[in-house]
Design goal:
single chain, alpha/beta, four-stranded mixed β-sheet, three-stranded antiparallel β-sheet, about 30% helix
């Protein structure tokens, strides 16, 4: 078994509505409370970062699964949405919706389409970030799989 360690340095120089910084490997950015939560909205924030972690983990996992299965794609893109509930002043990350769009090559079969759909679902339960937040944040998948038109 191998453990992988990741490190982050954070600096928060002021009060609630100030701007701080974080550094972790290639991630170097400003952080603050988002405007939607009455903050300055500079740099990124925990809500975007959790959504980014979940989305990047999912799409990388899906791409790896497609490659291992020999499923050829022409394009793979995704939009993700994070929903934060605010009830009685308590902020709760409620739901993440992933909307992957898989475009298979023009010569893909119906079996390839079925496999792509299956892999879209399997990637959600295989991604380590999805597993880490499971039971705390609802995960929803709205996958679209299509075959490219021949040029």
């Amino acid at each position: 078994m191998a453990d992988h360690h990741f490190y982050l340095k954070a600096n928060w120089p002021g009060k609630r509505n100030d701007v701080g910084t974080i550094e972790s490997g290639n991630l170097i950015t400003s952080i603050s409370i988002p405007k939607e939560m009455d903050g300055p909205g500079e740099g990124t924030n925990p809500d975007e970062m959790l959504l980014g972690a979940a989305a990047t983990c999912y799409i990388i996992t899906l791409a790896a699964m497609m490659e291992r299965s020999g499923l050829e794609k022409e394009d793979l893109q995704m939009e993700s949405e994070g929903i934060v509930d605010v009830t009685r002043g308590i902020f709760t990350y409620k739901k993440i919706i992933h909307r992957p769009a898989v475009v298979l090559r023009h010569d893909a079969s119906e079996e390839d389409v079925a496999l792509a759909r299956k892999l879209c679902e399997k990637a959600e339960s295989s991604c380590m970030i999805s597993r880490a937040i499971q039971g705390n944040v609802e995960l929803q998948l709205e996958a679209a799989v299509k075959i490219s038109e021949q040029s």
